[in-house]
Amino acid sequence: MSDQTQIQPQRTWQGPSAPERLAILRRARSIAIVGASANPARASYFVATYLLSSAPYDVYFVNPRADTILGQPAYASLADLPVAPDVVDVFRKDADLPGVAQEAVDAGAKTLWLQLGSWNEEAAAIAENAGLDVVMDRCVKIEHARFHGGLHLAGFNTGEITSKKQRLSGRG
């Protein structure tokens, strides 16, 4: 085996099914984005703009180096939020995830949601042992849009073929 070969840890954790993820999103009223960025090139910014414009959630931003993001206050930590968030959506590096999971537990969150590419079974165990739902390696924006028929609006070609006549805007 060469030095460049990386061994991926075995994934043993099983995440919630599509109907269970839909139920999580339907129950949620607030989402805290940990690792939120004011940089439009960052994934967290893209997700934040979608959630603010196309989803029914109160959105809170957690970034200790920012004062505001998208015109809203940014908080230094989950503990500083004015509410216990229903969903903690995490954009942080792998090594930070167990600590963020514990912060989510301590803040009274109901769900720990790790974004696409984020998989940490230690973080999942911390959250699940405290009674939180856990979603890993999925994007809140993509899942919300998928369940609510908005993937085409979110920049995705759904590939859906339909015989229904399309309505043109501005026409009755």
TrEMBL record:
Regions annotated as coiled coil: none
Q: What is this protein called?
A: CoA-binding protein
> What organism is recorded for this protein?
Brachybacterium alimentarium
Q: Where is the CoA-binding domain?
A: 25-118
